[in-house]
Structure formats: structure tokens, C-alpha cells
């Protein structure tokens, strides 16, 4: 560009732009700027008011305000025809009360003096009069004595209920009686039931006592069997002396043979006893007598 | 022809509460149209520009007591107006679900339908060409082409260096020239 564009010579380089008219093509409504000034002034005044700078009042304004309002109201009321006498509202309440009283008097709703105080006695007397006129009479002072009579009768009946002691029993007799009866009846059943209930079926083979009893029985059987065997078929063990030990080694057949061949009176007696032969004493004496006679 | 009041006079009058309204009226007379057209060229629609202009001047009224003279008064006001325009355009995009590429077509339609545009065909075409630029580049072009602002002043407004502004403006002009020539 030809210059630093502080002047308009730079437009020479831009022909198309230079050909455009440089007047302002934009327009505004007629009187716009004058109106704009006024509007701005009003806006500024409104802004000042909103900012609180204009909120000032004359001195004693609020003090005089009440009087001003009252006077303005009076003026307006006079102008409109609505007027009230002086101190009207102050006297209004008492006026209303007095008018109410006057109205009550004129309508006839009044009562004699002390009416309500004498009302109860009047009612009682009238009730008495009505009862007399209806034909139902009662003795004098009947109602006064009635309450006492009722109370006394109640007391008598209570005493009669309490003092019926023609058949006496010891103290606590009936309680004891109940207890004994219950013990003999319901409690017994209760005990039995408890016992029955308490009996528990237990399996014998699971019990330790059964085991010991079984072992004892087994031992008894074995012992009995051994004893019986000993009795029926005793087996002597000759080990008391050396002779016994020597003889025990001998065969039984040899011993039998010796005894058959070499037996004496002592052996005979032994054989008789061992074999269990019955010994006839009479015959034995005769034989011994014969043997003696022969010798 | 009215005599333009110096910014210093306006500021001094504004500091005094008694003359504050007078100062503001002077400020309005001096900068009302500049601010409006700056906004109008960005948003195209008159009603939108009207709303934004009033918002800008109300902000000026509120923040002028804190103005520290570290910048010129009108560049400060331009900065406020520029920020309002950028914010408005962003909101419009979000409200209408318009993509960044389609926003220029939306403003072009507004321009075409606007009853407050009486430019000729060339001017219409130029506006269409300007609307093809990015928002910030469009700002720079408008301030330079229409307002004849200096680069230092534009730098105070947009917060960009003078060199970057020159480059941006140069690119903008080239784009517009090409647009004008391509549509012939």
C-alpha cells in the first residue's frame, strides 16, 4: 500500500472500492436522534430513582402525613356527602349497647328481679303442689328418712350374710380338705402318669448290666458243665507222691491184671466200695464165720 | 453549526452534580450519532442499533464519574459500544443457533430486508462484502473507512497493536476488493 493509510490515498490501489460512493447508505427514522436524546434523559432519571438517590422526603413528612391523610379524607367525605358526627366512632360502642337495651325492653323479654335466684325454690314448691294435687301422698318427712332407712337396711343385710355360723369348722379346713382330696385323686394320677410317662423302654443288649449278667451266666454254665463232668468221669491226677507219679505212668491194663491176680482183703473191700456192689452184711458175716471155723 | 464542546468541559461539568445533566446532554449531542452509526454498521438493523445505543449511553452515564482521563473520552465510549456489539452478535448467534460461518448471511438478509437502507447497488454490494469479514476485522474496517479514525485510536478501542491493525485492515481491503470484482 502506498501509505500507512492514515489518509485516503490508499484507495487509489483499490479501484473497485474507490468507485463505491462513500456516503452513508444507512438511514434512520425522522427525528430519531432528537427522540433518542429525550429517551436517554428519561432513562437516566429513572435510573437515578431506582438507584435510591431520589428517595428523599421533606422534613417531618411522616409526622404530618397522618394529619394530611385525615384532612384529605374529611375533604373527600364532605365532597361525597358521607359525614359523621364528631367522636362518632368513639361513642359508637356505648350507643350500640344502649340501643340493644332499649330494644330488649320494647320486645318484652324481661325478668323480675332476683328471678333466677328464687327459681330453684319456686320449682320445688311447684313440684310439691303438683304432687299434692295428683293424689299420691307420702308420710311426713318420708323422703328425709328414706335415705337413712335404706342405709340401715343395707347394713343389716350385710351383717346377716356374714354372721351365719351355726356349723363351725376349723380355720383353713376347707382349703386343707381340697388339698387332701386333690392329693388322693388328681395328684395320684398325675404321679402315675408321671411314672408311666417316665418309664422308658430301653434295649437290653445296649445296657452294660446285661453284658455283665450274660457273662456271669456263661461262666456258671461252663463251671456247671465241668463239675458234672468231673463227677461222672473223674480223672484223678496222681501227683501227690512219688508212688503216685510212678503208678500213673503204668498202663491201666497192667494194673487191672495185677489186681485180678494179686488182690487181698483190703483190695476186696476197695473193689466193693469202688465198684459199688451192694454188700450184704449178713452173708458177709456167715462167710467170715465159715472161714474162721475152717481155720 | 453547533460548536463542539471540548471533552474536558464536559467532564468538568459532569463532576458537579448541579451541572451533571447539562454535561450529559452536551455529551449526547457530541457523540450520539457517532456511537449510533458505529453500532449500526455492525448490527445492520436499526432497532437493534437503537437498543444498543441506549444501553451504551446509560453505561456511560453510570461509569463516567469513574473516568480517569487515561484515554480520550470518545475512544472510551467507542470501546463500550464495540463490546456491546460483540456481545450482542454472539448472543444472536447462540439464540438463533447460527454457526459462525452463517452469521454474515443472516446479517446480509437483514440488510436486504431493512427499510432503512437506501444505498445504491454498489453500496449494497460493498455492505455485503464487509459482512463477509470477521467481526473484529469488520470493526477495524468500519472505523478506518467510515470514521477515519487513526490507528492509535482504533488500537485504544479494540486493544490491538497498531501494526496488527494495519495488517488486518490491509487484508480486509483486499478481501472486499476481491468480492467486489468477483461479483461483477
Task: Walk me through the structure.
Chain A is mainly alpha-helical and 295 residues long. Among the domains of chain A are: 39 residues, no CATH class; 36 residues; 46 residues, no CATH class. Chain A is built from 13 helices and no strands. In chain A, helix 7 runs parallel beside helix 8. The mean pLDDT of chain A is 72. The termini of chain B are far apart. The model of chain B has no long low-confidence stretch (mean pLDDT 88).
β content of chain A, as a range? under 5%
Shape of chain A: flat
Strand runs of chain B, count? 0
Give average pLDDT of chain A, whole number. 72
* CATH class wording of the largest domain in chain B: Mainly Alpha
Task: Give keywords.
heterodimer; A: 295 residues; mainly alpha; B: 184 residues; Rna Polymerase Sigma Factor, Chain: A; Arc Repressor Mutant, subunit A; 9 helices
Amino acid at each position: 500500500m502506498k501509505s500507512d493509510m492514515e489518509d485516503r490515498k490508499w484507495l487509489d490501489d483499490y479501484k473497485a472500492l474507490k468507485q463505491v460512493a462513500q456516503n452513508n447508505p444507512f438511514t434512520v427514522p425522522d427525528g430519531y436522534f432528537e427522540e433518542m436524546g429525550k429517551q436517554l434523559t428519561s432513562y437516566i432519571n429513572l435510573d437515578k430513582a431506582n438507584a435510591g438517590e431520589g428517595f428523599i422526603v421533606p422534613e417531618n413528612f411522616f409526622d404530618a402525613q397522618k394529619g394530611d391523610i385525615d384532612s384529605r379524607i374529611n375533604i373527600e367525605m364532605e365532597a361525597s356527602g358521607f359525614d359523621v358526627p364528631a367522636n362518632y366512632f368513639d361513642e359508637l360502642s356505648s350507643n350500640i349497647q344502649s340501643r340493644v337495651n332499649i330494644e330488649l325492653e320494647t320486645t318484652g323479654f324481661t325478668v323480675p328481679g332476683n328471678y333466677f335466684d328464687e327459681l330453684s325454690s319456686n320449682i320445688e314448691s311447684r313440684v310439691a303442689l303438683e304432687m299434692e294435687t295428683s293424689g299420691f301422698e307420702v308420710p311426713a318427712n318420708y323422703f328425709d328418712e328414706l335415705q337413712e332407712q335404706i342405709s340401715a337396711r343395707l347394713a343389716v343385710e350385710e351383717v346377716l350374710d356374714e354372721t351365719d355360723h351355726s356349723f363351725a369348722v376349723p380355720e383353713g379346713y376347707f382349703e386343707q380338705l381340697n388339698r387332701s382330696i386333690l392329693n388322693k385323686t388328681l395328684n395320684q394320677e398325675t404321679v402315675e402318669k408321671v411314672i408311666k410317662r417316665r418309664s422308658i423302654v430301653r434295649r437290653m443288649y445296649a445296657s452294660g448290666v446285661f453284658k455283665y449278667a450274660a457273662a456271669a451266666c456263661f461262666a456258671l454254665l461252663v463251671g456247671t458243665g465241668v463239675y458234672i463232668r468231673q463227677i461222672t468221669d473223674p480223672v484223678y491226677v496222681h501227683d501227690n507222691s512219688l508212688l503216685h507219679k510212678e503208678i500213673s505212668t503204668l498202663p491201666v491194663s497192667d494194673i487191672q491184671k495185677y489186681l485180678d491176680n494179686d488182690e487181698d482183703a483190703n483190695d476186696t473191700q476197695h473193689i466193693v466200695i469202688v465198684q459199688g456192689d451192694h454188700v450184704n452184711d449178713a452173708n458177709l458175716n456167715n462167710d467170715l464165720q465159715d472161714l474162721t471155723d475152717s481155720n | 453549526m453547533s460548536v463542539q464542546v471540548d471533552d474536558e468541559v464536559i467532564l468538568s461539568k459532569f463532576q458537579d452534580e448541579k451541572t451533571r445533566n447539562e454535561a450529559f446532554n452536551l455529551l449526547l449531542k457530541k457523540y450520539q450519532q457517532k456511537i449510533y452509526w458505529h453500532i449500526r454498521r455492525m448490527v445492520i438493523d436499526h432497532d437493534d442499533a437503537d437498543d444498543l445505543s441506549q444501553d451504551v449511553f446509560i453505561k456511560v452515564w453510570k461509569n463516567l464519574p469513574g473516568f480517569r482521563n487515561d484515554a480520550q473520552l470518545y475512544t472510551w465510549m467507542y470501546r463500550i459500544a464495540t463490546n456491546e456489539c460483540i456481545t450482542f452478535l454472539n448472543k444472536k448467534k447462540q439464540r438463533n443457533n447460527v454457526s459462525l460461518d452463517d452469521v454474515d448471511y443472516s446479517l446480509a438478509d437483514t440488510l436486504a430486508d431493512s427499510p432503512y437502507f437506501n444505498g445504491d447497488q454498489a453500496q449494497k454490494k460493498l455492505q455485503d462484502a464487509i459482512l463477509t469479514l470477521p467481526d473484529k476485522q469488520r470493526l477495524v474496517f468500519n472505523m478506518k473507512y467510515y470514521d477515519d479514525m487513526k490507528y492509535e485510536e482504533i488500537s485504544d478501542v479494540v486493544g490491538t497493536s497498531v501494526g496488527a491493525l494495519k495488517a488486518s485492515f490491509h487484508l480486509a481491503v483486499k478481501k472486499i476488493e476481491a468480492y467486489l470484482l468477483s461479483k461483477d
